[in-house]
Amino acid sequence: MKILIVEDQKKVAGFLKKGLQEEGWDVTATASGEQALHLLNTNTFDVLTLDILLPGIDGLEVLRLMREQGDDTPVLLLTARDAIPDRVNGLKSGADDYLIKPFAFEELLARLQALVRRNKRYHPQILKASDLVMNTENHTVKRGGKEIILSPIEFRLLEFFLQNRNHVLSRLTIEEAVWDTDDGQESNVVDVYVNHLRNKIDRPFKHPLIKTVRGFGYKLDAGDNYEI
């Protein structure tokens, strides 16, 4: 699962990032409200934690702008403000949940998992990289607004790349995930289908997304990660 942490206290951000990565989450972090809005406009996240007291654009303004733009990504507000009016104001601004600092990591994790489960019941999963958009509910793929027709295997392969965007994936890892094998043996099937996929989502366009990493495998390089 992908999470955006918007937190200007480096100790808190580091604590959250380390704990969530150990739980297998794909974590992006920023200390800036402006950068958070940029990341939300160029990436897809399953959930985000949002500190209210940020320099520049504060957390509530980030939240307000998100909702105005139609972004319904679940938001967990994290703040030291514990007065009831503060909590009510945060929820009225569009937050899905509210957690007071200091907090136990186990509670944070449980709340995040609940938000993700709740959201996925009501919304199709949209996966994005650059100008490529995949809708996993109606099985459509578009790049630059142009619809791309993929075979079922090509679709599963691209979905796996998008779920692991900016991460290097070995051929064996890809084969085991997409073809559901566990024999520990590499074949050339991955190379064949990566080539098919490139012919459809890369070669007709100016900027290729699927990169070969010599000696390792492949990655879908969206080129827009930002971390503190």
Tell me what the CATH architecture of the largest domain is: 3-Layer(aba) Sandwich
Strand content: 15-25%
How would a textbook summarize the main sheet? 5 strands, parallel
Strand order of the largest sheet: 2-1-3-4-5
Order of helices and strands: EHEHEHEHEHEEEEHEHHEE
**CATH homology group of the largest domain:** Response regulator
Provide the structure class. alpha/beta
Distance between the termini: 19 Å
Rounded to the nearest angstrom, the radius of gyration is 19 Å
The beta-strand count equals 12
The tally of structural domains comes to: 2
Tally of DSSP helical segments: 8
Q: Report helical residue fraction.
A: 40-55%
Poorly predicted sequence stretches spanning 5 or more consecutive residues = none
- What is the third-level CATH name, the topology of the largest domain? Rossmann fold
Average pLDDT, to the nearest integer?
87
Oligomer: single chain
Task: Indicate the overall shape.
Answer: elongated
CATH class of the largest domain: Alpha Beta
Tell me what you see in this structure.
- The chain has 228 residues and is of the alpha/beta class.
- The protein folds into two domains: 2-122, Rossmann fold; 126-220, Winged helix-like DNA-binding domain superfamily/Winged helix DNA-binding domain (Arc Repressor Mutant, subunit A), CATH 1.10.10.
- Helix content is 41%, strand content 21%.
- It has eight helices and twelve strands.
- The strands form three sheets. A five-stranded parallel sheet has the order 2-1-3-4-5, with helices on both faces. A four-stranded antiparallel sheet has the order 6-7-8-9, covered by helices on one side. It has a three-stranded antiparallel sheet with strand order 10-12-11.
- A hairpin with a 2-residue loop joins β6 (126-129) and β7 (132-135).
- α2 (33-42) packs parallel to α3 and α6 (152-163) crosses α8.
- The longest helix has 18 residues, at 105-122.
- The radius of gyration is 19 Å and the shape is elongated.
- The model has no long low-confidence stretch (mean pLDDT 87).
